[in-house]
Amino acid sequence: MSSIVNRSPEKAQAKPDACLSVSRLCVSIRDPEQRDTKGRPLSSEMVSDVSFTIAAGQTLGLVGESGCGKSLTAMAIVDLLPKPQVYQSGGEISFNGQRIDSNDPKALKALRGKKVAVIFQDPMTALNPVQRTGQQIEEVLKLHFPKMDKSQRRQRSIQLLNDVGIPSPENRIDAYPHQFSGGMRQRLMIAMALAGEPDLLIADEPTTALDVTIQAQIVALLKKLQQERNMAMLFITHDLALVSQVSDHVVVMYAGKIVEQQDVPHIFSQPRHPYTKGLIAALPAAVARAPKTKLDAMPGQVPSIDAMPTGCRFANRCEYANERCEQEAPELTAHETGEISCHHWQTINEASTSGVSKNV
Amino acid sequence: MSDALLEVKELHLHYPLKKRHLLDKPSAFKAVNGVSLFVNPGETLGLVGESGCGKSSLGKAILNLQTPTAGEVWFQKTDISKLSNREMRPIRRDLQMIFQDPYESLNSRHTVSSILEEPLIIHSLGDRNQRRKTVSALLDQVGLPQSAANKYPHEFSGGQRQRIGIARAIALQPKLLICDEPVSALDVSVQAQILNLLMDIQQDMGLAMLFISHDLSVVRHMSDRIAVMHQGQIVETGNAEDIYCQPQHDYTRLLLDSIPQIAQ
Ligand SMILES: Nc1ncnc2c1ncn2[C@@H]1O[C@H](COP(=O)(O)OP(=O)(O)OP(=O)(O)O)[C@@H](O)[C@H]1O
Ligand SMILES: Nc1ncnc2c1ncn2[C@@H]1O[C@H](COP(=O)(O)OP(=O)(O)OP(=O)(O)O)[C@@H](O)[C@H]1O
Ligand code: SF4
Ligand SMILES: [Mg+2]
Ligand SMILES: [Mg+2]
């Protein structure tokens, strides 16, 4: 497992321990329709061997194709997987040195009252539709700051709504979530997550419904809180430009596995994995295209969970794939600036830097 | 302009505000405040604007999912703004919407195949066998595996759910598709697949689109014309390239300036 802690010495000195440490996490999904010979439901592994650490004050960006397991990884960390259908089937998760995962019998209690907050990808699944927004924020405040009185809580809620850019919050605080626009609901979720002043914030696509002007405001707010309170952040997004602005380090996932991790200047200046390279090449800004022409979509599809190949999971879409890739799954290997999981990464990267053709 | 597929005239959608005191005059929040626009057959009109400016409300008012407070919506030469739900039914076949929040719009107790079959049944299209084939083709088109058919919406990731919503909206091959942030939950590679798919359908079937998004680079890529919305009103309309290269309104300029770039 690599350590993100040592890569940014200036920041890390303040609090050198890993705030969050995820080690060989596996998440599996039971298929109730398929049973083994003893009649037990069969399950397949959706997240495999995912490891990373985040130090206090640092942000880890988690990117990857839709459906690759980003949200499941986040849910596992806060023990909110929809059990029993989806469950943690391996690995350990620790927060400030203490186990918090569901594989440890003592862990559940440890998580309670811990300063971990989540911004969920689907605001409406996390918001209570029949409770006024103000009450929902106040409940978080009640839990974390029992000494606050009623009027203080209301003041603080208005302040939080204001911080996330909701116009005239004092009029909005008594509205119900369905009276908010898509982007305002997302900001409401952010306000609720920040209300408890977390030490670790897990943000799952927190700004997808926001236009760039408000996104910039939210990102500035998160960075400010991070500096003031040394908050650690796991930032899940498919927006590479955004990830480059908020993260110290980036983990790239594909089909349930980490394929590459590097610190932020390098992942963009020297992406090493063919999938990462493809992602960066598909950015609208990277290729100027005439309007209404076809975009270069990465060809092919992610393998489905019930048909995961034994070899490299990216092989069916990779232009460098050969027989070895189809038979043998590559392992994560360390290099100077991070880790990569690809049999041919050295040859591929030599070829592309020297301009030689891509035959590997 | 008279042969526009959709023509919206002075449309208003006001949400009533709760009275604080008994004696207060009833007041309302003007989410859509006098919008006029048109979309020609086969054309894409992009709609951009900041969060909360009224884009989704406008979409729902055009579809008559929220009854407009005032104004007219002419679709294929009929004013649909005052039609009842039942009168709307035959028209809905040609007028579909991809919703911003897929979770809210997908029935969580139905499997994907029955979600996709439902519009086909309502409009009595094909027999059981043909419907199955259509469902399977739709899954292919939006890049979901065939095994998705027997699953429920909560068994999918955010981006996959969005694609289910897209499949349902194109199932009836509508003439006008209102796309409310159709790709903002998707990573770049799937995003490109979906945008290509929409452009394909547009070419094959002459589909027209009202394309709502806060992502200006996507809107520019998809649209023939762009309308910029601000606080319930359209503040600027024009050719996509002109808006992008010579924005007139302050908000349009701000939007363009705030697009994040890869930090080097
Ligand atoms: N409750 C569930 N039951 C069964 N399968 C599930 C469930 N939740 C997720 N999955 C499956 O697990 C895979 C990973 O889902 P996850 O939500 O982690 O993806 P993601 O990386 O967050 O994608 P996105 O970017 O689209 O949100 C998906 O293929 C999804 O179909
Ligand atoms: N059912 C409702 N009752 C009261 N107010 C509402 C309702 N739905 C929306 N609004 C308000 O109308 C305004 C416009 O909302 P709308 O959803 O149309 O915005 P939008 O432009 O789609 O924003 P976003 O980009 O965030 O999705 C917002 O201020 C919202 O709070
Ligand atoms: S291991 Fe082979 S198939 Fe996988 S990414 Fe590397 S070259 Fe491509
Ligand atoms: Mg997700
Ligand atoms: Mg909206």
From TrEMBL, chain B:
- For this entry, list what GO says about its biological process: transmembrane transport
Q: Where, by residue number, does the polypeptide cross the bilayer?
A: none
Span of domain ABC transporter: 17-256
Q: Which residues form a coiled coil?
A: none
The alphabetical list of record keywords is: ATP-binding, Nucleotide-binding, Transport
Keyword Transmembrane attributed: no
Q: Where is the signal peptide?
A: none
Q: Does the keyword Transport apply?
A: yes
The record's similarity note reads: Belongs to the ABC transporter superfamily.
- The protein's name in its UniProt record: ABC transporter ATP-binding protein
